[in-house]
Design a protein that fits this description.
The structure holds 2 protein chains of 2 kinds. By secondary structure, chain A is mainly beta. Helix content of chain A is about 0%, strand content about 55%. In chain A, the strands form 2 sheets. In chain A, strands 2, 4, 5, 9, 10 and 11 form a 6-stranded mixed β-sheet that branches. A 5-stranded antiparallel β-sheet of chain A has the order 1-3-8-7-6, with no helix packed on it. Chain A starts with a strand and ends with a strand. Chain B is mainly beta. Helix content of chain B is about 0%, strand content about 55%. In chain B, strand 5 and strand 6 form a beta hairpin. The radius of gyration of chain B is 13 Å and the shape is globular. Classes of the chains: A mainly beta, B mainly beta. Chains A and B meet through strand 5 of A and strand 5 and strand 10 of B.
């Protein structure tokens, strides 16, 4: 069935470097996307969202890029810090639906 | 803003007992609440979707008689795991959403059934 998937299950970056987490989705009808951060033993935390009528959205230290042509979503984290260590999930929702479809998650680890 | 709480955060119970988990939206009215289950190192698995004042819609494979969901008000939903068994041990997470707004998640409840 339709699903949201991630290219890599793990990502290691040096502290201070930029991180890029990728996500592929297969449902062309999806019109809303969210990135969540989940730290160990906690619930997912909303980071940033983007609607399908946009291709880029920026937050504090984070940027989400949406490429509808290739059905690709990415999360960029600038100047990665130890506190950014977590599992990052992308999620999609398609028009008229209530529920999110989650990707498998990418674990981001920060090397000192 | 957009804070969702869960209670309890951890619960240990004996096999055969029932456990109730509460999910509250603290600063907004949640027209829709969701219950998820998460196994270690896995993504979130949606169990059911609950609209205030309506019966919950369960995902395929989720036993509605086993996992009772009540969404009696715009700020509270409860999940009751009835006759819990060790295989029900898991991390249960709720989320809540106001109309056309993002879903916000609670901190999760870790259930251990002995």
């Amino acid at each position: 069935g339709e699903s949201v998937g991630l290219h890599l299950p793990t990502l290691s970056v040096q502290e201070g470097d930029n991180s890029i987490i990728n996500c592929a989705y297969s449902n062309s009808a999806s019109d809303y996307f969210i990135w969540y951060k989940q730290e160990s033993g906690k619930g997912p935390q909303f980071i940033i969202d983007i609607r399908s009528n946009m291709d880029k959205r920026q937050g504090q230290r984070v940027t989400v890029l949406l490429n509808k042509t290739v059905k690709h979503l990415s999360l960029q984290i600038a100047a990665t810090q130890p506190g950014d260590s977590a599992v990052y999930f992308c999620a999609e929702i398609y028009q008229g639906a209530q529920k999110l479809v989650f990707g498998q998650g990418t674990r981001l680890t920060i090397n000192p | 803003g957009a804070v969702v709480s869960q209670h309890p955060s951890r619960v240990i119970c004996k096999s055969g007992t029932s456990v109730k988990i509460e999910c509250r939206s603290l600063d907004f009215q949640a027209t829709t609440m969701f219950w998820y289950r998460q196994f270690p190192k896995k993504s979130l698995m949606l169990m059911a979707t609950s609209n205030e004042g309506s019966k919950a819609t369960y995902e395929q494979g989720v036993e509605k008689d086993k996992f009772l969901i009540n969404h009696a008000s715009l700020t509270l939903s409860t999940l009751t795991v009835t006759s819990a068994h060790p295989e029900d041990s898991s991390f249960y997470i709720c989320s809540a959403r106001e109309k056309d707004a993002p879903q916000y998640f609670g901190p999760g409840t870790r259930l251990l059934v002995l």
